[in-house]
Amino acid sequence: MSIYLDNASTTFPKPESVPKAIYNFLTNVGGNPGRSNHDNALQTNRILVESREAIAQFFNYKSIENVIFTSNITTSLNILINSSLSLGDHVITSSMEHNSVLRPLFNLKNQGLIELDIVYANKFGFISTEDLKNTIKSNTKMIVINHASNVIGSIQPIKEIGDICKNNNIFFVLDTAQSAGVLDIDFTRINLSALAFTGHKSLFGPQGIGGFIIDDNLNKSCNPYILGGTGSLSHSLTQPDFLPDKFESGTLNMPGIVGLMEGIKFIRSEGINTIYSKNNFLRNYFIEKIKNINGVILYDDKYNNNYTSCISFNIKDMDTAELSFTLDSDFGIKNRSGLHCAPLAHKTIGSFPSGTVRLSLSYFNTKEDMDYTINAINKISKFK
Question: Is the pTM of the predicted complex or chain greater than 0.85?
Answer without folding.
Answer: yes
